[in-house]
Amino acid sequence: MAADRTAPGADTLAAPTVDVHAHVLLPEVEALVAGLPGLDEARALDARRNGPDALAVSGPMVRERVPRLTDPAVRLTAMDSQGVDIQLVSPSPSHYHYWADEESAEKVYRLANEATAAHCSAAPDRLRGLGLVPLQHPDHLVPALDHALGLGLAGVEISSHAPGRELSDPAYEPFWGRAAETGAVVFLHPFGCTLDERLDRWYLSNTVGQPTENAVALSHLIFSGVLDRHPALKVLAAHGGGYLPTHIGRSDHAWATRSDAGAGCAQPPSSYLRRLYFDSLVHDPYVLRELVRVAGAGRVLLGSDFPFDMGTEDPVAALRAARLSDADFHAVRGGNATALLRKD
To answer: What are the Amidohydrolase-related domain coordinates in residue numbering (predicted)?
Structure first.
């Protein structure tokens, strides 16, 4: 039997602590899109989805965290206090701007990629970066991915969907193929939930919306056969993959009993969890233990959502609370991410 290359090994004990879910704010991107047609409408939709109470809290929260989001020196000091050696830094999802036209979208991804690379260049031994691609313009995805990789970024960050397009859309096939070919990391991080105003109170737009969007997006990748066609694809799902890993039995049941559910993928949906990667940010040690059980300890990576308030200030302590075996703890703490981000 071939060795399980996703299982944690002894070398994980010496691996650095790696946080794969950390963000950077890029004011230059927002300056670029200011005044463009479509921005006001997009912001109005975001306001409706979140509701006034959430916006009243989020504004001051983000402003207080700007130094950690923009200044590499402040970021590194915070990492030291958390015991984090390396961060995989991705742009704030507020920079996706999937409403932008082709010309503007190209400017956005180029500037975002360049600004993220510049931020990480302040400490290249401790900061790795991810770029952006314009999901609303499928023909631009491969050039955008190549642009990010050409700058030394480890891959790109995407949302759970673009207007009118799910991740199962055939137009994305060249992108998935290129990502698999290059070994790029594709970080799946939703921004906004299509349940809209149903979630506009009590911050349900985030607490319910984010894990819902993760589950829907991953289900599209699984049931459509994207992971069958591109087995080398490195998709890393934020927020522990949302609701899907803990409710994957329902997906397996549908796949086995209904012809419509089983038509698109070759294996039971649960088997694909071991082809994906997940961050550890689930806010519950028992859920984290279950995620490790169903996905495998070699597929879960430390994540904090640095430095936002829906993250954790002490990701290592949150991981330790799951009471994993020593080997699994160190694999999640840094061994898995070190292998995933290795420059081959």
So the answer is: 18-342
